[in-house]
Amino acid sequence: MTTHAPHASHTVTLPASLDEAVAALTAMPAAVPVAGGTDLMAAVNAGLLRPAALVGLGRISEIRGWQYLDGHALLGAGLTLARMGRPDFAALIPGLAAAARAAGPPQIRNAGTLGGNIVTSAPTGDTLPVLAALEATVIIAGPGGARREIPVSHLLAGHEMLHPGELVGFVRVPLLHAPQAFLKATGRTGPGRATASVALVLDPARRGVRCAVGAVAAMPLRPLEAEQWVASLIDWDGERGLVPEALTAFGDYVAAACIPDPAPPEDGSEPATLPPAALHLRRTVAALARRALGRALS
What we know:
Blueprint lengths: L1 E3 L6 E3 L4 H10 L3 E4 L3 H8 L7 E4 L9 E4 L2 E5 L4 H4 L2 H6 L1 H8 L4 H6 L2 H7 L6 H8 L2 E5 L5 E5 H6 L9 E8 L5 E6 L10 E8 L4 E7 L9 H8 L12 H15 L17 H22 L1
Parallel strand pairs: 2-4, 3-4
Antiparallel strand pairs: 1-2, 5-6, 6-9, 7-8, 7-9, 10-11, 11-12
Helix pairs in contact: 10-11, 11-12
C-alpha cells in the first residue's frame, strides 16, 4: 500500500511482510524505515531530517512477537518496549524487561521498539547494555529473502553495518535461566535519559558473569577483566554469595575500566586527574555495578 500525504513530496509505503519492506527499501534507496518513530520524529521535528520517503513497519506481524528456538528466544524487532515490560516477558528475559520498563514515560514505551533501539544506537538506549551483556545477535533481512546474523555488539560498534535495503528483523537472545539485573541513573527523579546504566547477567552454565555499562560511551562497554575476576570468587555450586568488600571492589573495578584515569604525560610531568564530572560519573557507575551484582546474587 502506498499513500501520498497532501502537500508533501514524500511517499509512505506500508508493507505487510519483512520481505516486502526490504523490497520497498531496495526500490527506494532514499526511503527511511520507521516503526515506533520515537527517534525519527524527534529528528524530523527538530529539522534535522527530511526523509524523501518512509517505509512503515507497523503492519508486519511477524516481527511483533517472539518464539523459542534451540535454547534461545527469537525476538521480533517490532516488539514494543511496553510489551517487553510485561510479566510474561520478564519471566523469560528479566534484564531486558527491566530495561524496557525504565525506558521513559508510557508514550515512549508504547511506541518505541527493540529494533529501533538497536538501529538508532543512541548511547542512552536502555536495552543496549542488556543486549551486550546477553551477547545477543541480530538477524538481518536483505534483498531476495537473504538473511545474515551478526553479534549486536558488532552493529553497535560499527564493525558491521546494514547494507542498502537491509532491515533488522529479529534478535536472538540466549535463555540463561539465571538472575539478571538492570539499573540506571538519570540525574533526576522519574523517567529520563540515563547518565549511566549497568546490565548484569549470571551465566551458571559457563560459570560466568557478564556486565555491560551504558550511556558513558558511544556504545555499551564490557569490563571483561572485572567479569572474569568476580566470576572466580563466586561459589557456583553453593549459595553464590559474596562479601560486601568483594561487591565494592567489583564496582570500583568496573568503573575504572569504563572511565579510566588519563594517560600519564609523555614528558614525565605531573599526571592529569579526572575532572569532577568524570569522577562523579565513575562513582555512579561503581555504585550501579555493585548494586546490580548484589541483586543478581541475592
